[in-house]
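Appendix B, Record 12. Input sequence as logged:
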Amino acid sequence: MGVKIDINSIKRDMFILVDNQPFRVVGYEHVKPGKGQAFVRVKAKNMKTGNVTEFTFKSSDSIELADFEQRFMNYSYADGSNYYFMDTNTYETFAVPAELMEEEAKFLKEGMQVVVFLDRGNPIGIELPKHEVYEVIETEPGVKGDTATSATKPAKIETGAVINVPLFINVGDKIKVDTRSGTYIERVK
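Logged structural output:
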């Protein structure tokens, strides 16, 4: 049995168990209707399937926290079926199955430090740094002086992901990217 908390104490990024499945809270809302009982609407991502689900709990409910461990690890390599991460303190290597990494894999760089989530010692997913700098390896030539328009063009970054960038970005430029949404933030000198 995990630790139970009052549903009103729920916070973003907490790990909870619902129907014995581990979820990570991505958002929540306390709702007090004019009539009837107050409730809490929780949006949570299933850590095994990656699906986001919405749950509704009565404000008198309690919820079980998942037995999760988060460890900082460095990305080493991939072999097609797994991505391998090394715990920099213990030098243990953990394999995260590729199907749990579809979104994150687009922005993984060798040596990148990530958080690996362990469920009872088994890796079930990772979290990338919120922003990371990447080199543009393929895009149409930049248009000089075109910094005012909001027009964008596709650019391939060193991990193989394609994101939309402003027209003035060239091959070889380093750009900062929001790894959660895959959006361009700024050019980095």
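The chain has three domains: 4-65, 68-127, 131-188.
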